[in-house]
Amino acid sequence: MAKRLSEKKTHILLVDDDEADVELIRRAFAPQAEQVDVTVARSLDEARGCLTQILPDLVFVDLHLPDGSGLSLLEGEQEDQYPLVVMTAHGQDEAAFEALKVGALQYVVKSEAALAELPDKVELALRQWQHVIERRRAEAALRESEKRFRTVVDQAADAMFVHDLDGRIIDVNQQACESLGYSREELLGRRVPNVDAEFGNGDDMKSAWSHLAPKRPITVEGFQQRKDGTTFPVEMRLGLVELGGRRAIIALARDITERKQTEIEMNRLRNLFKNMIDSMPSILVGVNSEGRVTHWNVEAQRVTGVSAEDAPGRMLFDVFPQLSVEMGKIRRAIREQKPQKASKVPTEVDSGVRFSDLTVYPLVANDIEGAVIRVDDVTERVRLEEMMIQSEKMLSVGGLAAGMAHEINNPLAGILQNAQVMRNRLTGDLPKNRRTAEACGITMEAITAYIEERGIPAMIEAIMDSGRRAAQIVDNMLSFSRKSDSHFAPHDLAELLEKTVDLASNDYDLKKKYDFRRIEVVREYDADTPKVACEASKIQQVFLNLLKNGAEAMAGNKGEAPEGKAAPERSRFILRVAPDADMARVEIQDNGPGMDEATRKRVFEPFFTTKDVGVGTGLGLSVSYFIVAENHGGTMAVESTPGNGAKFIIRLPLERRAP
Amino acid sequence: MTNRARTRVLVVDDELSIRSSLAGYLDDYEYEVAVAESAEQALELIRQVSFDVAVIDLRLPGMSGEALILQAHAMYPAMRFLIHTGSVGYGLSEKLRKIGLRPEHVLLKPLPDLAVVVAGIENLMRREQADER
Questions:
Q1: pLDDT higher than threshold 90 for residue A483
Q2: What is the reported pLDDT for B132?
Q3: What is the residue range of B11's domain?
Q4: Domain assignment of residue A248, given as a range
Q5: How many Å lie between the alpha carbon of A488 and the closest alpha carbon of chain B?
Q6: Which CATH number do you get for residue A521?
Q7: Which of A67, A145, A335, A587 could share a disulfide with A576, CB 3.0–4.6 Å?
Q8: In chain A, which residues have their Cβ closer than 8 Å to the Cβ of B28?
Q9: Does residue A609 sit in the same domain as residue A510?
């Protein structure tokens, strides 16, 4: 490759076979010999020889040379390397234009004057050449850039469509052709393949286009149809651009089949997971280490009334105050990464005390610390356990009583019978008494006077009374072992309860202690309660027992207000009868002093009594319990806290069932 | 009113306190009363004297009260029986029912009032008379 001689000197190659002209030009350049060096070639051949040696800054070439046209110097790669000024004779304008067309920089019409002025043209030509070079480079760069861009566009993973506002395609990339199965030529001029916006924002494409503004691309989702008629989901990014003064749309379509499938699968999993935790009977609550809720299942929603939409992000103690006492456990579970448990945690709610089992499982997911709290309402189980213990106690008492009954009844008979005979003989108006008295020389009147004086009849009466009471206790105890088998008939529980209230109001024993009629009775009877197969007298016995107990408990209500408490209200029973699944529920609630947990747990226990010695046998409630649970296959429970009265709840199966 | 002096009652109970008080009570009401403390002794008496009614405890040493009733009935079908027992929930056996015993003839110890025994005897005697007619 030839190289330029010097940056300072302008090197000129003059190709001309006309000696006179050459001489003329030489002379013209002579004054600038310092700056300009002129090499002369007299033929194309010679010129090419020079060009292999040096690369001139400027070439003057005569159009007609002995071995061809001066323009042939423009052929090949040379054209980019040096500027070429063509010299022509007069009348060769056409040839001169032709020369410019094929790449000559300028042309000079040969004349003596023109040749003498050539040096003046050099600077201009060189400057002009500089522009040409620059333009050519820029063009090359642009071509290169376009080529690169095209490659990038063609190889892009997204299908690209450039189309006008009517949807007519102006350009597409390789991926667009491949994804739809059309050739580029098939696509150009067609309308953009119909995009069925089945999912996404639901707009059709035209309305999507109408929303476009420059520099504000939008994304829509839809389906595209291939040449073979099949469709696939795409996400399209639409941008509005100006192309050649006209608005056009560039749409990049991405096949999201896989993403859609992943989304569907993820949704399915999410739903499955949600359904799973929602189908749990437990409350499941997720919290992070700050104590903020992250998960909230349906049961949590049901119990707290806070919806699954509202709970996440809120503090646990705000949305689930009952759990706030367990924050320590939650923190410990997170800190030690070990599950924490608490069983039978009592919570006071409006309807009484409920018990929960609580488990806190530490959770580490994606490095986010937290815990899952599981809360199970075990109130029913706890109550059932209490009842089972109760039943067992009863049965053991029953078994004991049955075994003892005969042994006790015989001595009792001895006591009672002998006392009665004594009474008869001392106070009875019997012929035999008189005869015997006479035989002894005494009158019955004297005997009567004596025993009355000494209080004997009252003593005998006391013996018989004690004997009868003992007999009653044995009889009550025996009811624990007696399997009732008779008199089951359908009864309206509200009616039975009413009859019992009447009975209580007129009970002489009861009136002695407290006036039942002073007690307000509120009745909440659900008329839809079905009749219950039961033994009416037994059930009435239970009701009467509860009413008596309640009345006794409330007898204290008329006293002074206990310290720090409001004056007691008027004594009041609330009686409720309502259906309860396949059972009927009776509630007898008083507003007496209530009882503490220790008492509450023992009330059904045989011989457990809070009454003074001699007032109660401690069997009333246990007999009631036995009647309900063992004879009728029902349940009996009590809810009470000190100061809040007591509520006895009896549930009896509608149909008779084996206990 | 039946002629009480003519009514002969046998009281069978192994427990003295019960036996004697019941006998004493009935004696006061002008019954002719005999006592036995076992079934065997009772049978002995029955062979010697004819009783109208026997008040019999069931649980006895040796022969049971029920066996006694059945045997006595076989010997003297006119004899009537009251059962006086401390066995709770006692139910009459088929054999006893066959010879005419009914739940109202079963008296459970302890009786709050012995008047029920007298009433029981009187009922049996009335039926006896009705049968005779």
A1: no
A2: 58
A3: 4-132
A4: 156-261
A5: 18
A6: 3.30.565.10
A7: A587
A8: 421, 424-425, 428, 430, 432-433
A9: yes
